[in-house]
Amino acid sequence: MVFSVRRPEVVVEPGKDGTKSKYWIEQHYTYIATTTHDPENLPLVIERGEGVWLFDVDGNKYLDFSSGIGVNNLGYPTHPEVKKAIIEQLEKLAHGAGTDYFNPYQVMLAKKLVEIAPGGYRRKVFFANSGTEANEAALKISRQATGRKFFIAFYGGFHGRTMGSMGLTASKPIHKKLFFPWMPGVVHVPYPNPYRNPWHIDGYENPGELINRVLEFIEEYVFDKLIPADEVAAVFAEPIQGEGGYVVPPREFFRELKKLLDKYGILFVADEVQMGMGRTGRMFAIEHFNTVPEIITLAKALSGGAIPIGATVFKADLDFKAHGMHSNTYGGNALAAIAALKTVEIIETLLPHVQNLEKVFRERLEELKEKYPSVGDVRGIGLAWGVEFVKDKSSKQPAPDVRNKIVARALRKGLALLPCGKSSIRLIPPLIISEEEALLGLKIFEESVKETA
Ligand SMILES: Cc1ncc(COP(=O)(O)O)c(C=O)c1O
């Protein structure tokens, strides 16, 4: 597929003469529940997509640096090979009551996921429809396998919005406000954020010190109040925090954490819902940290954006002890399974490309950090990049207003971005982006920063 790399020509400013966009946004608010939209800064009404380009209902063209929040890793509308696999599957079987009858398609996908999961354990898979459900399954697997009730999760982490995974989530207060009681029994601890942590350690200069402080906190505070070997079932962590701001911890962190957990038989769950499926240039982000989790949760990009699916890939001996302890209706149905299988095969071929593009992003974004006082931190691996905006570099005070203005300005210039964390922007294009397209997006991003900051 060849798509033009012409600069997007956004001639219509939505809200002014973007009449159709305005109409659909109004209709949206009339009929659809209030969720997470920001019509002031992101009034994008998508009609269709082509490669890494989005087209709105008014005919404007945008370069996509958001991948549908980490879903459309293979671009738009649907990768031709995934589409072909879906159509062939539709002609055979879309849904076959996969929780009561058996079908080969789920088994084929499960086998593939087990083969590609980081080594060390014999594994099995539970299929769901979303990230939050994949995490719910991980919670239940951990509790019933260990007989322990408590969990540890990290401040800044996002694991979903259902009552169980919401208990793990510690991202924005609005996620939990008015919803207590969610699942009790989660203790939160600081994430090893090299730029912004409770101890004011520069984690880029002193990664070892930062790691030690986090582990000491767990050992000296949490394990002083809970009996780790009796009460703590699992630790949930995003290998790179996504909603929290695309925060990359020191490379040794998870290995050291895992050593501590192994002392007490505590399970390690890597939530790869946003960072998995090739986003970082490895199939799973945790592979960059040389750590083998007992449980991995997946969703978002797993089926290439075509059909919803979630998966919990776990050490086989943690399996549910009896039929009926956990199940669902639609999870990983035949259609979703085949779409995901094809997606995984394509992502495997894209990994070297993602690794190459990492250099382009690192170079350009590091330059921005040097040039602009509002750019406090730049971090990322592969095609998972976060840029954090601050009032000034020395105080590191978050600048959400500046961030929001940059997102809005970039959109008007034809670049679709998404915010994350308190004052960060994520740059996460589809993995199929060419270097030329990546450079164009980074150029528009820089212009937007320059004109705002
Ligand atoms: C790391 C992580 N886990 C879980 C979820 C929840 O996934 P879903 O929205 O599919 O329930 C998200 C969603 O953003 C996520 O980023």
TrEMBL record:
Pfam families: Aminotran_3 (PF00202)
Segments forming a coiled coil: none
A biological-process GO annotation: lysine biosynthetic process
InterPro entries per record: Aminotrans_3 (IPR005814), Class-III_PLP-dep_AT (IPR050103), PyrdxlP-dep_Trfase (IPR015424), PyrdxlP-dep_Trfase_major (IPR015421), PyrdxlP-dep_Trfase_small (IPR015422)
Molecular function terms from GO: identical protein binding; N2-acetyl-L-ornithine:2-oxoglutarate 5-aminotransferase activity; pyridoxal phosphate binding
Stored SUPFAM superfamilies: PLP-dependent transferases
Top-level taxonomic group: Archaea
Cofactor or coenzyme needed: pyridoxal 5'-phosphate
EC number of this enzyme: 2.6.1.11
Keywords: Amino-acid biosynthesis, Aminotransferase, Lysine biosynthesis, Pyridoxal phosphate, Transferase
Recorded family membership: Belongs to the class-III pyridoxal-phosphate-dependent aminotransferase family.
Protein known as: Acetylornithine transaminase
Organism: Thermosphaera aggregans (strain DSM 11486 / M11TL)
